[in-house]
Every structure is written in structure tokens, then in C-alpha cells.
Amino acid sequence: MQHHVNELDWSELERALFADGYVLVPHVLEARACTDVAAMYPNDDLFRSRVHMEAHGFGRGQYRYFRYPLPELIQTLRAELYAGLAPIANRWMEALRLPDRFPDSQQALFDLCAARGQTRPTALLLTYEPGDWNALHQDLYGEIAFPFQATFFLSRPGEDFTGGEFVLVEQRPRAQSRPEVIVPELGSMLIFANRYRPAQGKSGTYRTIVRHGVSRIRSGRRFALGIIFHDAR
Fold first, then answer.
1. pTM of whole model > 0.85?
2. Which domain holds residue 143?
């Protein structure tokens, strides 16, 4: 078995997402699967584009967007995670008092995206080398934006690379921003809010803005797989 998505406790994941805006799950991808996905990076046939972050002011490093059809493992991860997250996303929208609702299936979401001109796949493979980093950002890509995304960590911190911590920053209204610094193990999966999340205050639920990035790589090479559920323009 390459992954353990079918073993996830979605009730516990929902509790953590509502409490913290993210959840880190260890040992979701097997080590061999991590190696196999990272090894895809040089294969031009699998990708539609390559982005050099420095050229766009995104930081430093590079990533590649997969083309359709996605590799089987990545397609499976995307579809199975979406099925578990869609009901949570709709309760998230209710808590935020927003009108957006998301269909049960990944294909139905693709149809919504296509109706608004969003047809390009957004699953991506990222690589960082010494001195590379990723600026705080949000992955929205168009009018339709699913409120969660996932990152799978394909390298061993402290062995394959040093530095390169995953950073989440929550901008709270009328308050200082709150950072979270995460150092996941090989094969871990992080699900997080890609735009905003509901937070509980004294007067009820309010909205906070969330951005994510990666701190500077000190040594080695770091790979990560990004799963974004909506397509791009």
C-alpha cells in the first residue's frame, strides 16, 4: 500500500481543522511512495509548466504543475481527500456565513471550475535547495477556490535537508498575526486553510486570513507534493 488516506479519522480531522485551521497527520505516504513521487520531478512528460519563484517575486526555488491525466497515485490522493473534505468545507462555509457550497465529488467541482474558465490542473511538485524559500501566499487561482489544500512531505528533515520549515501565518482582526512553524516527518500530510478560517471569539465566530510559506533551506534538498483541489485559469 502506497498511502493510508482510507484510514483517516475524518471526525478528528474536522475537530482539528475547526480548532486550529490545520491538521498534521504522520505516516500517510509510505517512504517508497515519497521517493517515487520526488523522482517524477525531471520527467517533462508529466508536467504542464515549471515556475522559478525568484522570477515572480515568490521567493526562491522552483515547482512544476502536473498535467492531466495526473499520475495514478496523485489522482487517487486528490479524489479521496476531496471526498472526505467536501462535507467539512461546507460546514466551514456555514460557520463563516458564506454562501459557497461544494459538491460531493471531485469531478463535480471540476465542472464548476470549468464553467468559470478554470481548467488547468493545480497539483504540483516543489523542490528547494540551499538558500531557497517560499514567500507567504495563498493558492486561489480563480473564482472557485476550495477552502482546504494538502501538502505531502517527501524528504526527511535533518537528514535530506535542514531548515525549510513549513510556516502558517494567521492574520487576526485588530490583533497581531499568529505564526505556526511545522517540521513534518517524511510521509506526513498537512491539511490547512488556504484562504481564511472560522475562529471562535468572545462574541462568536469571526474570520481570520491564513497564508503559508516555507522558511529558508540551510542544506540539502527538500521535496513536497501540493494537492490543490480546484483547477486554475
1. yes
2. 5-228
